[in-house]
Specification:
heterodimer; A: mainly alpha; B: mainly alpha; MetI-like fold; two-stranded antiparallel ribbon; 14 helices; about 0% strand
């Protein structure tokens, strides 16, 4: 009965699953050891290096934030991070600089992100439940196929997919950007949920079975409630990926009233570069805020929130 | 597991009637309903798989045709593939992408590993550092950040201002074809945080006692790194390498936004996928674009297979 926790088929899939397991292992609750090694001097030097790297990495973001409050003419001449006077003018003019007010693009992006989150949560958890908790013929083969699709470059299937969507009349709608999420097309999320569900004790399922719970009710009443932390991870990653996605909307959306934030933002910059720096940076800040907010709210789910994903 | 299930089905049907087999059959019907349920739960995924597998085949067919979405595809034999070989822009695009990948992937992996090792030594405020280093990787490929990069590397941008402090006259990073790709490589390194987090998780799996035993034996820092860290971390390094290569060879947004969709200056940021997009979706030369896609697929499959083959000689599994 417990043979569902067996090791994956040997060979290529195993080499890949080892790495994947480490990639999802960062989601363990097991806290990092806070044991400090080295002398006070090396510890101090370590901090110096880390602070230095951190400053270099954060500087561009802080510079952009500061530039978004400066008049366009002073963006490059005024080098200080603290603007001499804080002006919200860039935000006001950037908001209305494009064909539509910026809230339209924000709402469009939110709609897409919401649908993608719903799709991934439902379809990936269903697939993961079957792979991790149910016995059926060909389980290992299908699981290997699922891992294999992870290595397939998306652009190989792009043109036929576009042709299909075009023939269905779906171009210039949100369907090509949302329906695939409902078809469990993200293998990484399936793998992440499989790892998580495998780690739940099998006795739970046996007890549910004795109480007369079929596979459907077990999924809904037993497994789903316990998988909430992993689902939160999937939701946050989906939000960030959908919010940042540029290629999909570029390909399928042509009406400017359907545009998402990245498509709108791009209009601030032509091939020759931008002219109106202030508003561009202001709207860039607006476009990044939701991602940064989700990161800070959800970082325990992204970095170390979930219980064991069955390392080893 | 599946064989034992079919085996008991055979016994059950063979001796139908007696009480033990009734019980067995009931268990089998439970197994059968579990199997049915599994396929129900997998149904969306199966449809999704079809939606990947069929286009995969169709794109191979289209690669041998002349197709513009309006007229039906016309078979043209190998013409698209010979055209790729003679197309200087395709060669340029492949060169840009390979150069970018072979510089950006190793550099970001080395940065990720170096910072992960520093953090793994135990640092006060580890969680804070980890967040600071991880955040850029989540936004590195967004339109806002690519536009920001173009601005800070501009001729009078902050990078050149910084270099001027040391008396260095910086190049026109954005306008000079020799430097534009370098600018995008720095952006890729800026996003090292995702691999860093994975490395950090891998480093945590290495038992501390190995290092303790090694230092008792007098092994220095470098020796410990070579003999303990690298072999035990090799599955994670391998994973980051495989997915890093696949991802990097498919770079699109950076080149598109950086050059306003042209791949300029002088085609120095004309990534392969950007050229594919121009051919397939701006000129609607979809047969040629499919051939380009298949060449890319073969190149990526080659590198991935090579990675898996070579992994036998350096990736180490300790159990």
């Amino acid at each position: 009965m417990t043979d569902l926790t067996d090791k994956p088929a040997p060979g290529r899939t195993e080499t890949l699953t080892r790495g994947l397991r480490s990639a999802t292992a960062r989601l363990r609750t097991q806290g990092y050891q806070e044991e400090l090694t080295g002398t006070a001097r090396t510890r101090f030097l370590r901090h110096c290096v880390l602070v230095g790297v951190g400053l270099v990495m954060l500087y561009p973001l802080l510079w952009m934030l500061s530039a978004s409050f400066k008049p366009s003419t002073k963006v490059f001449s005024d080098a200080s991070l603290l603007p001499s006077q804080v002006e919200l003018g860039n935000y006001a003019s950037g908001w209305t600089a494009l064909e539509h007010p910026f809230e339209l693009y924000l709402v469009n992006s939110l709609i897409l992100a919401g649908l993608n989150i719903a799709g991934n949560l439902v379809s990936c958890s269903m697939a993961a439940y079957a792979f991790s908790r149910l016995r059926f013929r060909g389980r290992k083969t299908w699981f290997a196929a699922m891992l294999g699709t992870m290595l397939l470059p998306a652009h190989v299937v792009l043109i036929p997919q576009y042709v299909i969507f075009a023939k269905l009349g779906w171009v210039n709608t949100y369907l090509p950007l949302t329906v695939p999420a409902f078809l469990a097309t993200n293998s990484f999320f399936i793998f992440l949920l499989v790892q998580f569900m495998r780690a739940l004790p099998m006795e739970l399922q046996d007890a549910a079975k004795i109480d007369g719970c079929g596979p459907y009710r077990t999924y809904w009443k037993v497994i789903m409630p316990l998988t909430v932390p992993a689902m939160a991870t999937v939701a946050i990653f989906t939000f960030i990926a959908s919010w940042n996605d540029f290629f999909g909307p570029l390909l399928y959306l042509t009406d400017s009233d359907l545009f998402t934030v990245p498509l709108a933002l791009r209009q601030f910059m032509s091939a020759e570069g931008a002219s109106d720096w202030g508003p561009m940076f202001a709207m860039s800040v607006v476009s990044l805020l939701p991602v940064v907010a989700f990161f800070f709210i959800g970082q325990r789910y992204l970095l170390n929130g979930i219980a064991t994903t069955g390392m080893k | 597991m599946s064989t034992s299930a079919t085996g008991s089905v055979a016994t059950a049907t063979g001796h139908g009637g007696s009480p033990p087999t009734v019980r067995r059959r009931r268990r089998n019907s439970a197994a059968a309903s579990e199997e049915r349920a599994a396929y129900v739960f997998l149904l969306p995924w199966f449809v999704g798989l079809l939606f990947t597998v069929i286009p995969f085949g169709v794109s191979l067919y289209l690669a041998f045709t002349d197709y513009n979405l309006l007229q039906s595809p016309q078979l043209v034999g190998l013409e698209n593939f010979t055209r790729i070989l003679e197309d200087p822009k395709a060669t340029q695009a492949a060169g840009v992408t390979l150069r970018y990948t072979f510089i950006a992937v190793p550099l970001s992996m080395i940065s990720a590993l170096a910072v992960a090792i520093l953090l793994n030594k135990g640092v006060r405020g580890l969680k804070f550092y980890r967040s600071v280093f991880y955040l850029p990787s989540l936004i590195g490929a967004s339109v806002a950040i690519v536009m920001l990069w173009r601005s800070i590397f501009g001729y009078d941008g902050i990078v050149n201002k910084f270099l001027a402090v040391f008396g260095i006259t910086g190049p026109g990073w954005v306008t000079d074809p020799d430097w534009a790709l370098v600018t995008l490589v720095t952006l890729s390194i800026w996003g090292f945080g995702a691999s860093m987090v994975i490395f950090l998780a891998g480093l945590r799996q290495i038992p501390v006692m190995y290092y303790e035993a090694a230092s008792v034996d007098g092994a220095g820092w470098w020796r410990q790194f070579r003999a303990i860290t690298v072999p035990l971390l090799s599955p994670v390094i391998f994973f980051n390498l495989v997915l890093g290569l696949i991802g990097s060879l498919q770079t699109f947004t950076q080149g598109f936004v950086f050059s306003g969709g042209t791949g300029g200056p002088a085609e120095s940021t004309l990534f392969y996928n950007l050229y594919l997009y121009q051919q397939g979706f701006q000129r609607f030369d979809m047969g040629y674009a499919s051939a380009l896609a298949w060449v890319m697929f073969i190149v990526i499959a080659f590198f991935t297979a090579l990675n898996f083959l070579v992994s036998k000689y350096w990736v180490f599994y300790d159990d």
